[in-house]
């Protein structure tokens, strides 16, 4: 089970840190990631991390967002800095048992078996 928290409303230029509490052994799944879905748009990959700790980011968030994982706390994080209005979306964490390259992990949403319920981020 995956449970996101940390969303909210923030002004442009501000920061938020999203957390995803991961139950069971899901934290050790091969791929974990953060995804977002803006109103009227398809869900897209934001940041992914493999179990070798390699990471990848969508071009739109590179240099602003950082994904990390604390296996001891079974928590996945997304630090978001310099937020922009276009970052407004529902953010989801997800885990996949499938082996993928770090680039594939950002694109192949259909291979993510486990999803959280989402947390809303609004940037004005």
Description:
The chain has 124 residues and is mainly β. It contains 1 helix and 11 strands. The chain has one helix at residues 102-107; strands at residues 2-5, 8-10, 16-22, 31-37, 44-50, 55-57, 65-70, 75-80, 89-96, 114-115, 119-123. The strands form 2 sheets. Strands 2, 4, 5, 6, 9, 10 and 11 form a 7-stranded mixed sheet that branches. It has a 4-stranded antiparallel sheet with strand order 1-3-8-7, with no helix packed on it. A hairpin with a 4-residue loop joins strand 5 (44-50) and strand 6 (55-57). The longest helix has 6 residues, at 102-107. The protein is globular, with a radius of gyration of 13 Å.
Task: Describe the protein's topology.
Blueprint: E1 2-5, E2 8-10, E3 16-22, E4 31-37, E5 44-50, E6 55-57, E7 65-70, E8 75-80, E9 89-96, H1 102-107, E10 114-115, E11 119-123
Parallel strand pairs: 2-11
Antiparallel strand pairs: 1-3, 3-8, 4-5, 4-9, 5-6, 7-8, 9-10, 9-11
User: What percent of residues are in strands?
Assistant: over 45%
Major sheet size, sense and barrel closure: 7 strands, mixed
Task: Write down the oligomeric state.
Answer: single chain
Poorly predicted tracts of residues: none
What are the salient characteristics of this protein?
7-stranded mixed beta sheet, 124 residues, mainly beta, 4-stranded antiparallel beta sheet, 1 helix
């Amino acid at each position: 089970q995956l449970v996101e928290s940390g969303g909210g409303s923030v002004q442009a230029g501000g920061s938020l840190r999203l957390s995803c509490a991961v139950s069971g052994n899901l934290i050790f799944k091969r791929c974990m990631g953060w995804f977002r879905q803006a109103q009227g748009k398809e869900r897209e990959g934001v940041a992914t991390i493999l179990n070798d700790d390699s990471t990848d980011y969508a071009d739109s968030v590179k240099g602003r967002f950082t994904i990390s994982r604390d296996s001891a706390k079974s928590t996945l994080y997304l630090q978001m800095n310099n937020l922009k209005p276009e970052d407004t979306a529902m953010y989801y964490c997800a885990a996949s048992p499938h082996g993928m390259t770090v680039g594939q992990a950002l694109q192949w949403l259909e291979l993510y078996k486990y999803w959280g319920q989402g947390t809303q981020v609004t940037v004005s």
